[in-house]
């Protein structure tokens, strides 16, 4: 077997017309949708965890492969359900590339599926993408994606639950986002790479995942400057080519383990991570009294002091990430004093609060603010995961709760955390997965990113 063939088998390879993706291992199958976690609290997390590749960087990178008919080889792709969903989506389109369509059955399970809209339109001249389904953490419209594509000359109709977009060839334009949007910035950046002329995008998201996507697109031959700032300029080119790219480490996975280590009074090292992407979290935890030592690609956290509550306000990067808000709330239940948590990005992202209260926390939600009174002992309960990050906060709470907690609907966690129970078990947690085997044809639940 040639080295290239070996690489193809290890990494997803997406070709424009014949899309071929191979995963050499996968642990999530549809029959495991109703798995539960059983967690016994009390053990400190001690040891080392290797951080996986970032789901939120891998998803746009896979969509970017639609921009070329040459192979794009992506390394460090996490083995999580959202990636499988996107793989299925791309495969389904590979079969009918002359009729590019992203069907509801696939898009409803993951909002980030909208990321295929820009690349399909740019390369194929038209796209038909289902509107994402209802969402657990707020309305999350995609109007900014649509307005941006219209600024690049696309005609867009929305009917029967689908977005139908067409353009002979997109042309460069000036886009000022009404609001900062991460996947919106990524979608439009991809579309503009093949547009005729120059595109200037203002009020862009500055997340590391946007910068990573720009790095991949640049390797593919795109002309992009300014990624990581509020203004991105793209000089359209006629064609993009294949490339090989390593996805950045998952900053949210790293942050989740850091908080778990802090709360359990552990001593945890994280490898293959990028602490420079975690500035706001590290600073906040230091304010709470946590010991963190970071190098370029690893960090070590120990909890030598008592924890003191600090307020947080979620913001766009480089502010405190909304994707760490739920985990931080679990921490605040154990810190000394009262923490006020303000959620600025999504309007309905406190569903974990009521589950934490069922475990003994003292939390009052008032609109976009949650007031958490600290040092409340947590005790085991049967709790339900409601979305990806809410689930992570419940895992963390269970790790310090008294007794055995049963966490239902862990498919939410499987969407974005690679083998979380194995990683936690490896550093001393008492956690196990129990499965309720369902018939193979059971419908997938509707979940969103
Ligand atoms: C991405 C992340 C998600 C993270 C979020 C905020 C991925 C795959 N997901 O989601 O994990 O929680 O950023 O950091 O990268 N909005 C509109 N109209 C639009 C688009 C967005 O009003 O067309 C609003 C949303 O409702 C929300 C805000 O803008 O209030 C930010 O959303 P956005 O940055 O787009 O989130 P996602 O890109 O979906």
Question: Can you give me a brief rundown of this structure?
Answer:
This protein is an alpha/beta fold. The protein has helices at residues 3-10, 55-64, 81-95, 104-107, 117-124, 143-151, 182-193, 208-219, 251-263, 279-287, 325-332, 351-358, 388-400, 411-414, 420-426; strands spanning 12-14, 20-21, 36-40, 46-50, 72-75, 101-102, 126-130, 155-159, 162-166, 174-176, 198-202, 223-225, 232-235, 243-246, 267-271, 291-294, 298-302, 312-313, 338-342, 362-366, 369-373, 382-384, 404-408, 430-434. It binds uridine-diphosphate-N-acetylglucosamine (UD1).
Please give the structural blueprint:
Elements: H1 3-10, E1 12-14, E2 20-21, E3 36-40, E4 46-50, H2 55-64, E5 72-75, H3 81-95, E6 101-102, H4 104-107, H5 117-124, E7 126-130, H6 143-151, E8 155-159, E9 162-166, E10 174-176, H7 182-193, E11 198-202, H8 208-219, E12 223-225, E13 232-235, E14 243-246, H9 251-263, E15 267-271, H10 279-287, E16 291-294, E17 298-302, E18 312-313, H11 325-332, E19 338-342, H12 351-358, E20 362-366, E21 369-373, E22 382-384, H13 388-400, E23 404-408, H14 411-414, H15 420-426, E24 430-434
Parallel strand pairs: 4-15, 5-14, 6-7, 10-11, 18-19, 22-23
Antiparallel strand pairs: 1-2, 1-5, 3-23, 3-24, 7-9, 8-9, 11-13, 12-13, 15-17, 16-17, 19-21, 20-21
Helix pairs in contact: 2-3, 2-8, 5-7, 6-7, 7-8, 9-13, 11-13, 12-13
The protein binds uridine-diphosphate-N-acetylglucosamine.
Average pLDDT works out at 87
The neighbouring-strand order within the major sheet is 2-1-5-14
Straight-line N-to-C gap: 38 Å
Q: Structural class of the secondary structure composition?
A: alpha/beta
Bound molecules: uridine-diphosphate-N-acetylglucosamine
Proportion of residues in helical segments: 25-40%
Largest sheet: 4 strands, mixed
Work out the strand percent. 15-25%
Query: What's the shape?
Result: elongated
Given as residue ranges, the uncertain stretches (5+ residues, pLDDT < 50) are 1-28, 438-449
Rg, alpha carbons? 22 Å
**How many β-strand stretches?**
24
Q: Treating each run of at least 4 consecutive H or I residues as one helix, how many helices?
A: 15
């Amino acid at each position: 077997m040639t080295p290239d063939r070996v690489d193809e088998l290890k990494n997803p390879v997406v070709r424009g017309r014949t899309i071929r993706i191979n995963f050499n291992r996968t642990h999530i199958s549809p029959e495991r949708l109703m798995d539960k976690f059983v967690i016994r609290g009390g053990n400190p997390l001690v040891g080392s965890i290797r951080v996986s590749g970032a789901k939120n960087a891998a998803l746009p990178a896979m969509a970017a492969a639609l921009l070329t008919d040459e192979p794009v080889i992506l390394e460090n792709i996490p083995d999580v359900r959202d990636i499988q969903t996107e793989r299925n989506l791309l495969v389904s389109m590979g079969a009918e590339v002359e009729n590019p369509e992203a069907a509801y059955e696939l898009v409803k399970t993951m909002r980030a599926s909208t990321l295929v809209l820009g690349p399909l339109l740019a390369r194929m001249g038209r796209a038909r993408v289902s509107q994402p389904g209802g969402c657990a953490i707020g309305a999350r419209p995609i109007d900014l994606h649509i307005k941006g594509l219209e600024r690049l000359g696309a005609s867009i109709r929305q009917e029967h639950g689908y977005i139908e977009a067409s353009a002979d060839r997109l042309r460069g334009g000036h886009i000022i986002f009404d609001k900062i949007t991460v996947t919106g910035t990524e979608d439009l950046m991809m579309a503009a790479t093949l547009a005729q002329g120059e595109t200037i995008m203002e009020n862009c998201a500055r997340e590391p995942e946007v910068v990573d996507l720009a790095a991949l697109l640049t390797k593919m031959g795109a002309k992009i400057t300014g990624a990581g700032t509020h203004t991105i300029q793209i000089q359209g080119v006629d064609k993009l080519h294949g490339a090989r790219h390593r996805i950045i480490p998952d900053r949210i996975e790293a942050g989740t383990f850091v908080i778990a280590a802090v709360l359990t009074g552990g001593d945890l090292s994280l490898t293959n991570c990028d602490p420079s992407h975690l500035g706001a979290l590290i600073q906040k935890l230091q304010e709470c009294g946590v010991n963190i030592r970071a190098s370029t690609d690893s960090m070590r956290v120990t909890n030598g002091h008592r924890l003191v509550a600090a307020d947080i306000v979620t913001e766009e990067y480089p502010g405190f990430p909304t994707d760490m808000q739920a985990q931080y709330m679990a921490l605040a239940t154990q810190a000394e004093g009262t923490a006020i948590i303000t959620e600025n990005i999504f309007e309905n992202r406190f569903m974990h609060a009521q589950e934490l209260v069922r475990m003994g926390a003292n939390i009052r939600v008032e609109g976009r603010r949650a007031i958490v009174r600290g040092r409340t002992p947590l005790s085991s309960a049967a709790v339900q995961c409601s979305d990806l990050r809410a689930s992570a906060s419940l895992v963390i709470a269970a790790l310090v709760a008294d007794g055995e907690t049963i966490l239902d609907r862990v498919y939410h966690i499987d969407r974005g955390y690679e083998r979380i129970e194995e990683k936690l078990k490896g550093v001393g947690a008492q956690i196990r997965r129990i499965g309720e085997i369902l018939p193979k044809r059971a419908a997938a639940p509707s979940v969103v990113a």
